[in-house]
Specification:
2 copies of one chain form a homodimer. By secondary structure, chain A is of the alpha+beta class. Helix content of chain A is 45%, strand content 22%. In chain A, the strands form 2 sheets. Chain A has a 5-stranded antiparallel β-sheet with strand order 1-2-9-4-7. Chain A has a 4-stranded antiparallel β-sheet with strand order 3-8-5-6. The structure holds a DNA duplex.
DNA sequence: CGCGTGATTGAAACCCTTCAAGTTTAGTGG
DNA sequence: CCACTAAACTTGAAGGGTTTCAATCACGCG
């Protein structure tokens, strides 16, 4: 990991602030001293389970995953985060406890990292952002509920179809075994699911 | 469902405001006109999938569940909420869309319901509550992540053991088939899980 | 009492996993 | 640019955990 600082280069982060917080550009410079750009190579850790990392990471460029490792050594992916998404370990950031999860880079990644003080300043210079922030959180909760519902009710095939519909871009950028891990199935199973799907789509032979 | 109004009776809600928002008692009366007490009998719906219900429900007394119904008619429970917990459909409340889920009463239930304007007023009369509210949301996200992790990594038995550890009270109040639905298994499977657990605990016969 | 709901149990079926082998792909160094 | 290696993906056979379907039992309530 390597730390750089060039606010003008983080165009995605600026767009994020404009779009989600309606922050006018003249207020950007007040925030500059609260953010840090970090650069990670593929495979680098942003957060290790057990650490206390109070940074929040905005993904300016690249792709990371958040995952746990169970007692038998198997990894389980809780979240992918690519450009314009935010990733953090909430146990650390909000409750000062050891991180529950690992976060590492799937691709070379540039992040804009900051801690709670950025949000405090943001709320100070523009009080409306409180509501915007709450909306982002509520939406995230909605997304997690939807995922739980899928895990409770859908088969491997249905979950995979939902994944490629929700994240067509990730389907191409993420190795298949990680998608399997996200879906809660083995890589072998996902391979078979894909095969049966391919058969359905390309071999309704009696119709051709 | 039946609507009543007696602020002084909702002692749990008052405690909730004191503990989570540090709201001094002299400020309570400013909120009174923004809340409504509602009473539901066992089986009544608080929210129906497809409705737009912009109320947030604080459970003053009783027990409710939030669930979906899949195409084959099976129910999948996303959340239980008993005393001092909050339940709402976020699609409705925050995005003005039809509710994604059903909510109904497992026991006779009294709720304190309110809409977004209560939070607005609360933030106005006591700005610090913004942070308290965010903390509640972040903690909720943490809880959902933990549940996803369980669904990805743990067997039926492990999930059940975690459930009775996390919610010993609910284990007694909620019928077994609903716990199974929450865990993502069939009632039959849960019955068998419980049997093998009972055998382990009470029949290490060579030891007795 | 009898009915309905919830819990249990058994047998067969199914989906997914495991393990093992083989194939393809991607990255690295000569 | 090819050769080599490791990682990713595929495929097969066997096994395991969970579901399904059906029957039985237990209980509470009108």
């Amino acid at each position: 990991m390597c730390t750089i600082n060039a606010f003008s280069m983080v165009t995605n982060f600026i767009k994020f602030l404009e779009q989600n917080f309606h922050l006018p550009s003249e207020k950007f410079d007040k925030l500059e001293k609260y953010i840090t750009c970090k650069s990670f190579s593929k495979g680098d850790y942003l957060v290790r389970q057990g650490d206390v990392i109070t940074d929040t990471f905005f993904i300016e460029k690249g792709l990371v995953r958040m995952y746990s490792v169970d007692p038998s050594g198997k990894e389980h992916i809780l979240q992918f985060a690519c450009e314009n998404r935010i990733v953090l370990d909430r146990s650390s950031v909000y409750f000062n406890k050891p991180s529950q999860f690992f976060v590492d880079a799937i691709e070379d990644t540039v992040t804009v990292s900051f801690n709670q003080s950025l949000l405090d300043v943001l709320h100070e210079i523009q009080p409306e952002t409180v509501k915007n922030n709450e909306l982002l959180l509520q939406n995230h909760i909605r997304h997690l509920q939807f995922r739980i519902n899928m895990l409770l009710s859908a088969s491997a095939e249905e979950r995979y179809l939902d994944f490629i519909k929700q994240f067509p871009d990730l389907t191409l950028r993420v190795p298949q075994w990680m998608i399997a891990s996200y879906l809660g199935i083995t890589p072998e199973s996902l391979s078979r699911v894909r095969k049966t799907l391919a058969d359905k789509n390309f071999k309704p032979s009696h119709k051709l």
